Structures are given as C-alpha cells and as structure tokens.
Amino acid sequence: MAQAAPPDIDPKAVFCNNELSLRDIEVYGFDFDYTLAIYTRGLHFLIYRLATHVLIDKYKYPKGLGELTYDPAFAVRGLHYDVHKGLLMKLDAFHKVQLGTVTRGHTQVPDSEVRQLYEGLHVTIDRLNNFYGYGAHMQQLVDMFSLPEIALLSDVAEHFIKNNIQYDADYLFNDVKSAVEFVHISGLMHQEIMKDLGKYVEKEAGLRTLLDRLKNAGKSIFLITNSGYAFVSKGMQYLLGDHWRDMFDIIVTKAGKPKFFSETGGHQVSGSSAPSMHRPFRYYDVEKRARTWNMVTKLEKGNIYAEGNIDHFKEMTGWVGSKVLYFGDHVYSDLADPAIRHGWRTGAIIPELEHEIKVMNSPTYKTTIVWLQALQTLIANMQDLQEDDPDAQQTIHRWKKEREELRCALLSLSHAVELGHGLR
C-alpha cells in the first residue's frame, strides 16, 4: 500500500517546542532589530560594502577589495568558522564536520584533507564557542548580521589566495569581525538606513494590529534593544507612526545584551568573557540626546532608559518568570539567559523557516521523502533474507545506494531554497 504524501505545513503557523498557554502570559517583550524591524536583503549589501571600505581605509587592506561584491546566496546562518585554520564549514548536532561543506575562501577542501586536519570528523566541545558565543577555535555565525560577515571573510580569503598574498587566518578573522562591528558601533550603518528607511526596512501593517490587540487585552509590553534611541525612534515612526512610544510600557535602549541578561545586579554569570560590573539603568534625555546621571529607582511609562540589567528590571517591574514572553532573533543575546536562568518564556524569530516550509510543501520533496521511507522499510524487511541469497544482497545494495542518493537530493533541495534559489 502506497504511503500518502504528508499534508502541507502552514507557513504562517507558530511552532512550539514546549507547552505554552497564552492565557498565562501577562507581559510581552520584544527586541528591535530583526524582530519588530525586519530588514530587507539590501541591508546585507550595505553592511558588506561599508565593512569592505573599513578594511581598506582603516586596516589598510588591498584597494582591490573594493571591487568585491556581496553574494547573498553564498552562505546561511549557523555555519562554523575555524578561526585558526581559516575554514568555513557546517557541523551537525553531534559536532561532526559535514563532508562537502568545508571551504577555504571559495574552494571546497577535499574530504581527505578535512579528515587529516581534524583527526577524523569530530570537533571536541572545548573547541566550540561557549554558551554566550565567545572564545574557542570555532565561531558559530548565528545572527542575521553575520551573513555579510561570512561572505566578506570568505571573499577576502579568496582574493588573497588568488593573488598569492600570504595571510594569517586568525588576523583575517579578527580584522573582518572588527570591521563589521565598527560598521555597527560607529553609526555608519544606522546613518545609511535612516537616510532611506523604505530601502532597508520592511513595512509590515500587521505590526500595529498585533500591538493594539495586546494592549486591548490588558497586556503589558516592553522593548529591550541594543540599538540607540535615535535609530529606534526613526524606525518605529516609520513602522508605527509618531506616537509609537504610547504602545510600550517600558523602553530600554543600548541594553548591551547579552550583558543585560548575564551581568545581573553587579555579579557575573559563569561563562561570560566580559569583566563583571554593576550596570544600573540610566535615563535617556530625548531632547539633549544624552544619558543623564539621575539615579533610576523605578521604571515608568513615558521615559526612555539605557543600559541596566535584568535583576533591576524584575525588581522594578515585578515581571518575573513564566508570565513574561520575550521575542528576539539571536539565540545567545536574546533567548538563552532569559529562558534558562530567569524563567521567561521566549519566542525565536527564524526567517529561514519560511524557506524550509517551502521545501517541505513542494511536490518534489514530498515524493522524495515518501519513497525514501518506503526504501527504508524494504531494506529493513529484506535484512533476514539476504544472508544466503546473492540476488537479495544485490537488490539491497542497489536500494542502499538509491537511499543515499535520495538523502543527498533532499539536502541539495533544502540548501537551494535556503539560499533563495526557489523551486521549479
């Protein structure tokens, strides 16, 4: 009996990995970048271009890098970069290097060389970045801003290789990372975005509807973002109108996440590489465009705050535990500590799910997965018959070969859609 194809997955659905009743949620919190404000792909081109100029002008890299162009189809989030060896790769959930994914610049590294470099395929946990994404030899590139960083890193390495320019992989990684960080910290990126919000920010009409419904239901709403007030306000005016601040009960800018969640009340959580320090809230004076020195003893609607820490936030608001649901896009900065250490419920914004659902709903994927499952059943049922039957052994060998081909086809299909190539 032929197995029926699985039903389509709703691309607008919310996916839960833990039981959650929204009746129990009294407080909703949001990050700004890639959560309330969704950026167009044009932002990645901008970051790439600005960071390239930083490398040339500030770090004195070859002027020929100015001819490089960003390829949005080069990589996806979640890849690992070996800082010492200068290799980009994909690791699976068991910390094994996936053969065929390892590149130096744009060149795929042969499987035999990969096995030799890593003494097999397993990467030990002490070589991976820790809970906060710091340190170690392997850096995982997990936020949306990391996509142009990955591309620039590989493009510069490829330029050096092609032009026989000797380079140290550690220095290259650190320079590119610093250049991308400078684009953010210096305000270069924010200035360019504010000049043309329509080019870089997607205007979603449903955002105001969502916030209105939460307010009408009596829910409290807060914003905690690493971005500065001027940038957030400009973006929010574009998305929600001039009175956007009325939608939020508490607004915290320049929060410095993950420090906001990890450096709590003057002590440091084990695992964070930053020095321990007391980070009280500060008032932000909108008119003077500066933080003040007044002591913050309570958090009130209508004020703008900067910095702070989660202990003081909980003490001043009473918003604790599982009655809080906080949305963000970054596993380390937004979601890990609030959920694990402070008991908040968290929601991850994962744009890639849209592409994965497109793959899984496609006829090609469904046909392939049904036949793959059927093949697996046939192979299992034939195991006991093959010992004394050469024909059965040959048949199983063919089926196993076909099974491997189907698995590779599914991986290729998923990868193509992840990179925006679409389905035919």
Keywords:
three-stranded antiparallel β-sheet, 41% helix, alpha/beta, 424 residues, eight-stranded mixed β-sheet, disordered C terminus
Provide a descriptive summary of the structure in words:
- The structure is a single chain.
- Helices cover 41% and strands 12% of the residues.
- The chain is α/β, with parallel strands linked by helices and 424 residues long.
- The chain has an eight-stranded mixed beta sheet, with helices on both faces. It has a three-stranded antiparallel beta sheet with strand order 4-3-7, with no helix packed on it. Strands 2-8 form a two-stranded antiparallel sheet.
- Helix 12 crosses helix 14.
- The longest helix is centred in the last third of the chain and has 29 residues.
- The C terminus is likely disordered.
Summarize the entry for a quick read.
The protein has 424 residues and is an alpha/beta fold. It has helices at residues 42-57, 111-117, 146-162, 169-185, 188-195, 197-200, 206-216, 229-240, 259-262, 310-317, 331-340, 352-361, 363-382, 390-418; strands spanning 27-30, 38-39, 80-82, 87-89, 103-104, 107-108, 138-140, 201-202, 220-224, 250-253, 263-264, 267-268, 281-285, 290-291, 305-307, 324-328, 345-348.
